[in-house]
Design a protein that fits this description.
It catalyses: L-threonyl-[protein] + ATP = O-phospho-L-threonyl-[protein] + ADP + H(+); L-seryl-[protein] + ATP = O-phospho-L-seryl-[protein] + ADP + H(+). Its EC number is 2.7.11.1. The chain has about 450 residues and is α+β, with helices and mostly antiparallel strands. The chain folds into three domains: about 5-90, Phosphorylase Kinase, domain 1 (2-Layer Sandwich); about 95-280, Orthogonal Bundle (Transferase(Phosphotransferase), domain 1), CATH 1.10.510; about 315-440, TATA-Binding Protein, CATH 3.30.310.80. It has helices at about 45-50, 55-65, 95-100, 110-125, 180-185, 190-205, 215-225, 235-245, 255-260, 265, 275-280, 290-295, 320-325, 355-365, 420-430, and strands at about 5-10, 10-20, 25-30, 35-45, 75-80, 85-90, 130, 140, 150, 155-160, 315-320, 345-350, 370-375, 380-390, 390-405, 405-415, 440. The strands form four sheets. Strands 11, 12, 13, 14, 15, 16 and 17 form a seven-stranded mixed sheet that branches.
Length: about 450
């Protein structure tokens, strides 16, 4: 059912592949009745069951059924078979806003238009009790008319997810865009956290680079915690003032959505009427959410007999601030004792769940014909069956939980020849990890080059 040209459940003809991740592929497709272009997200049910992400998918469906707004990607319908889950989504032709910013900072009027549309969409979500929690340029798409569309509600939360203290407690999102109160794990207001992310996005639109960034994760967290950033000299005074109110590290002092929408710089050229006329008009076909997680189909079976996925449990080591500091590049003293060219270990951070990281490492090992042995504490031992110059090559991969949705992975050569290890690492292992890596530890991973601000 994943092949180009195939007919999906007698309703959609699948076209070219638009993108893919660990658990899903997204295709361009055509509605056979109306000839309308759509995007179809094909999710591997067995894989998401195995890593325990089915609740996240159910939540994404629930959220997208609640939100109907011209600046939010519309979910038309959801279908499920024994092996797959299909999201039929609005097809947004213009690609990610991130790609536009990567070419250089935007002019003030263009940045303001996107910010207005973003705030309008996020404010609407909040009015429905929905908090996105992963707002960033990669999750903001552009249609053929250059209008912004918020996508990817996989990490969003509903207001009924709050504890008795009225706060959310799940740490998630992309570190550079995450509010300080989310990082400190003491509970946070989802609306206030989204407002912070919108502020980071506004800065990126106008500057072409991030306000908080450092190759040392702890240093970046320190800057975020203190709200320590500097506006470039081309920022208008009104924007500087607005950003200082949005990127206030104290959520109780942070500006509200209402105040942002009353701001004089924000209001230039802003029309609420056209948005209000579109809100609520869109309809979605009813969805049997429970059919998503079991083997009974909510449409027609694709005939595949796949075993019901088992949710495994794995023990992962927790990391406190001191653990992170000791692993951070700024505190790494190994360069005093060894040549950088012959490093026998590497570390990377990932936003994937621990089980997804383990699944990826096992897939890589299988492709490279390496044996995998599980050890306690989230350690995988990956071993070559071939005897090399200095015996069998072995690599230990250890996973540390920084927050529930943010992990640090350390991969270390434990036996075998160093040159053989480096060849395997550079040519095979590292390239295969790119899908799950957020950043390599100790390397400058600027998503947006600061050269544009000179």
């Amino acid at each position: 059912m994943d092949d180009k040209g195939s007919i999906l459940l007698q309703r959609y003809e699948l076209g070219r592949l638009l993108g893919q991740g660990n658990f899903a592929k997204v295709y361009h497709a055509r509605n056979l009745r109306s000839a309308q272009s759509v995007a179809v997200k094909v999710i591997d049910k067995e894989k998401v069951l195995r890593v325990g992400l089915i609740d996240q998918i159910k939540r994404e469906i629930s959220v997208m059924r609640l939100v109907r707004h011209p600046n939010i990607v519309q979910l038309y319908e959801v279908m499920a078979t024994k092996a797959k889950i299909y999201f039929v989504l609005e097809y947004v032709r213009g690609g990610e806003l991130f790609n536009k910013i990567a070419k250089g900072r935007l002019k003030e009027d263009a940045a303001r238009k996107y910010f207005q549309q973003l705030i309008s969409a996020v404010d609407y979500c909040h009015s429905r009790g929905v908090y996105h929690r992963d707002l960033k340029p990669e999750n903001l798409l552009l249609d053929e008319n250059g209008n912004l569309k918020v996508s990817d509600f996989g990490l969003s939360a509903l207001s009924d997810c709050k504890r008795q203290d009225g706060l959310l407690h799940t740490t998630c999102g992309t570190p550079a865009y995450v509010a300080p109160e989310v990082i400190n794990r003491k509970g946070y207001d989802g609306a206030k956290a989204d407002i912070w992310s919108c502020g980071v996005i506004l800065f990126v639109l106008l500057a072409g680079y991030l306000p908080f960034h450092d190759s040392n994760l702890m240093e970046m967290y320190r800057k975020i915690a203190k709200g320590e950033f500097k506006c470039p000299n081309w920022f208008p005074y009104e924007v500087r003032k607005l950003l200082s109110k949005i990127l206030d590290p104290d959520p109780s002092n942070r500006i509200s959505m209402i105040k942002i929408m009353e701001n004089s710089w924000f209001r230039k050229g802003f029309s609420e009427n056209s948005t209000k006329n579109e809100i609520g008009k869109r309809k979605m076909a009813p969805v049997d959410i429970d059919a998503i997680s079991n083997c009974s189909n909510s449409s027609t079976s694709d005939g595949q007999q796949e075993p019901e996925g088992k949710q495994e449990s794995v023990k992962i080591a927790n990391m406190n601030a001191f653990d992170i500091i000791s692993l951070s590049a700024g505190f790494d003293l190994s360069g005093l004792f060894e040549e950088s060219e012959v490093k026998k270990e590497a570390r990377f951070t990932s936003r994937q769940p621990a089980l997804a990281i383990i699944s990826k490492l096992e897939d890589i090992a299988k492709q490279l014909r390496l044996k995998v042995k599980k050890k306690d504490g989230g350690v995988l031992k990956i071993e070559s069956s071939k005897v090399g110059r200095k015996g069998n090559l072995a690599i230990d991969a250890e996973i540390f939980e920084v927050t529930p949705s943010f992990h640090l992975v350390e991969m270390k050569k434990t036996s075998g020849d160093t040159l053989e290890y480096q060849k395997l690492w550079k040519e095979d292992v590292r390239p295969a990890l790119k899908d799950i890596v957020w950043a390599w530890q100790g390397e400058r991973n600027y998503l947006l080059q600061e050269q544009q601000h000179s």
